[in-house]
């Protein structure tokens, strides 16, 4: 039955390709039903694979394969479950077969990513996932700004993806054939190759998971439909980088430097992007920045060898963040806006959406006894460096701050500024399909905290293969939970309307961040990337193009002209002699032809005379010869 593992990604990929073909042929027949049915079957296959732990291999050029172990078993179920929830929600908003086709192929690529056993197959799925994300972010491609956002997100992630090519190339050169490309054997490569492999994996993972300095692409990803944001930001694309680091933790530890780099990159991202989230005035942008921050904890987990805590945090965050994005999407559809100042009273107007959003936000804040309170502390408890622990703890408290900011805005009573200047016409209602996944996701976001129970956490650690994990300390739980509640309540109480009626400036409690400050502008990462990377590269490309056009092409054309001139000079004597001989022969033949035509008069007596003369001459010759 191992062959069924190929079916797990092949099913959504094949159905997705079929829906794209149907869309191209303009024959769209119940794509929502087909997509949801495929999602259900994929979830069932994922559950079966997680239970039976199959492994399959194939050989074309290299030996590649898929395998489900404890860590990938958790991931395939998480990916399939979140994909199904997002597809059900999207069925209330979107009807085009193209959308569902792209979503299913995207999910299939993620399923291959989390089950691939070697760098070749991983890289193939990694690339397909990036291409599908580009198409989904730019789904409304007729809008130039949305298409531009998709391009920026794609180019940024592709820059990080080059690291995976570096890793694959270094691995291939480090040992014989397919064995060197196996993920399980990367830590055993030679020291030089191992460092290159680790560097490539770290760069690719940080780029995919929108960690510093790549974080700004996630802001641009908000140009896509809300279901796309929910899928990208929860259990799929951005989680792929964190998953790769957790999977490659032995490699990071073996280098002696990569684990520290990853740990500090994750901690600093959690801290700085947490401040960015607090400063946002747009709900989806707030959630996007919080995704970078929470993924920072997963990256930190890989750096401090807390694989069990990182995997648990990934699952809990997937449920909470998909819930929050779907709720934001429901409000965007109903009210036509995602600006925080225009969402006052939104939670009161739509209670189910508001309550489930509240559960997700409280879980994100790390409030006891919800899931991220436990999973976050499972990571913090594995940190030995006091400085690193301090940064991570402050980042965890910032999570309570941005969650409180979002909660306060949507639960505040409606005022004169509510739903003014909206982005699009709202329907004024939230559909049944849009509401359906929210309670389920809220239940998981709240209830997954049971993983903190020592016996359950021990079983969870064995499941994901983390033999060094230890249960979360009750003291640490009490400390972080208490601090999170204090920050949460402080920010909830501090979120008050501006004193001046006409003021357009939000009262941001965190460090008094101004509306157009660096934190509100995502640390100015995109302008910095343009100034430091994009413009120099494009200037270099233009200079290279001018060099090619003027110098290289000029040299080629000059050489061609010189060769032609030399050929003409060398050919003149030969051509003149041959041409003269040809002309002489032609002239002689022409004259002979003229002479030969003269006897041809057409008169019979002339022919008789010519015949007689000829006979006489023949007789004379005959006589002389004898």
In quaternary terms, these chains amount to: single chain
Q: How large is the share of residues in beta strands?
A: under 5%
Output the radius of gyration.
37 Å
How does the overall form come out from the CA principal axes? elongated
Number of helices: 24
Strand order of the largest sheet: 1-2
Q: Percent helix among the residues?
A: over 70%
The description of the largest β-sheet is:
2 strands, antiparallel
Overall pLDDT = 87
Structural domains: how many: 2
User: How many angstroms separate the termini?
Assistant: 109 Å
Question: Top keywords for this entry?
Answer:
mainly alpha; 2% strand
What this model shows, in words?
The protein has 626 residues and is mainly alpha-helical. It folds into two domains: 4-497 and 509-520, no CATH class; 529-617, no CATH class. It has helices spanning 4-24, 31-52, 70-90, 97-115, 119-137, 144-174, 191-208, 216-220, 226-234, 237-247, 249-255, 258-278, 283-303, 307-335, 346-349, 351-365, 371-380, 386-411, 432-435, 437-447, 454-464, 474-494, 525-597, 604-625, and strands at 55-59, 63-67. Strands 1-2 form a two-stranded antiparallel sheet. Strand 1 (55-59) and strand 2 form a beta hairpin. Helix 4 (97-115) runs antiparallel to helix 5. The longest helix is centred in the C-terminal third of the chain and has 73 residues, at 525-597.
């Amino acid at each position: 039955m191992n062959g069924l593992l190929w079916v797990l990604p092949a099913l959504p990929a094949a159905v997705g390709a079929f829906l794209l073909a149907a869309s191209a042929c303009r024959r769209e027949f119940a794509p929502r039903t087909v997509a949801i049915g495929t999602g259900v079957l994929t979830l069932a296959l994922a559950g079966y694979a997680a239970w039976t732990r199959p492994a399959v291999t194939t050989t074309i050029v290299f030996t590649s394969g898929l395998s489900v172990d404890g860590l990938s078993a958790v991931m395939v179920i998480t990916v399939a479950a979140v994909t199904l929830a997002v597809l059900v929600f999207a069925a209330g908003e979107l009807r085009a077969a193209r959308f569902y086709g792209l979503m299913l192929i995207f999910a299939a690529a993620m399923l291959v990513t989390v089950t691939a056993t070697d760098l070749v197959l991983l890289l193939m799925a990694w690339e397909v996932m990036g291409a599908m994300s580009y198409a989904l972010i730019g789904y409304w491609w007729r809008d130039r700004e949305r298409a531009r956002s998709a391009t920026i997100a794609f180019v940024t992630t592709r820059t990080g993806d080059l690291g995976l090519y570096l890793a694959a190339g270094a691995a291939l050169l480090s040992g014989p054939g397919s064995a060197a490309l196996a993920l399980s054997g990367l830590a055993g490569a030679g020291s030089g190759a191992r460092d290159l492999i680790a560097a490539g994996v770290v760069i690719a993972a940080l780029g995919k998971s929108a960690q510093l300095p790549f974080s700004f692409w996630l802001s641009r990803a908000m140009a896509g439909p809300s279901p796309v944001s929910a899928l990208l930001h929860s259990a799929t694309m951005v989680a792929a980088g964190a998953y790769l680091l957790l999977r490659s933790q032995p490699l990071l530890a073996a280098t002696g430097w990569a684990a520290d780099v990853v740990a500090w990159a994750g901690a600093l991202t959690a801290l700085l992007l947490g401040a960015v989230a607090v400063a946002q005035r747009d709900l989806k942008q707030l959630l996007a920045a919080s995704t970078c921050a929470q993924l920072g904890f997963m990256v930190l987990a890989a750096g401090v060898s807390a694989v069990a805590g990182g995997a648990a945090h990934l699952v809990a965050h997937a449920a909470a963040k998909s819930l929050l994005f779907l709720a934001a999407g429901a409000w965007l559809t109903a009210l036509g806006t995602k600006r925080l100042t225009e969402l006052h009273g939104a939670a009161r107007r739509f209670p189910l959406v508001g309550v489930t959003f509240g559960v997700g936000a409280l879980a994100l804040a790390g409030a006891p006894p919800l899931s991220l309170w436990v999973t976050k502390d499972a990571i913090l408890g594995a940190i030995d460096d006091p400085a690193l622990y301090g940064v991570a703890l402050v980042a965890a408290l910032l999570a309570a701050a941005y969650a409180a900011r979002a909660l306060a805005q949507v639960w505040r009573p409606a005022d004169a500024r509510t739903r003014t200047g909206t982005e699009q016409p709202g329907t004024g209602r939230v559909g049944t399909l849009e509401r359906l996944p929210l309670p389920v996701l809220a239940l998981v976001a709240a209830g997954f905290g049971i993983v903190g129970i020592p016996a359950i956490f021990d079983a969870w650690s064995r499941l994901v293969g983390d033999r060094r994990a230890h249960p979360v300390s009750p003291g640490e739980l009490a400390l972080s939970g208490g601090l999170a509640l204090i920050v949460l309540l402080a920010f909830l109480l501090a979120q008050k309307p501006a004193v001046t009626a006409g003021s357009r400036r939000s009262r941001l409690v965190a460090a008094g961040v101004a509306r157009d400050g660096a934190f509100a502008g995502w640390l100015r990462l995109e302008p910095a990337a343009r100034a430091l990377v994009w413009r120099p590269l494009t200037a270099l490309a233009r200079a290279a193009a001018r060099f090619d056009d003027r110098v290289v092409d000029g040299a080629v054309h000059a050489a061609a002209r010189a060769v032609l001139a030399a050929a003409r000079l060398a050919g003149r004597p030969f051509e003149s002699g041959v041409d003269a001989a040809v002309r002489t022969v032609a002239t002689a033949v022409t004259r002979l032809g003229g002479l030969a035509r003269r006897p041809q008069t057409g008169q019979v007596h002339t022919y008789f005379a010519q015949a007689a003369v000829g006979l006489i001459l023949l007789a004379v010759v005959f006589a002389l010869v004898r």
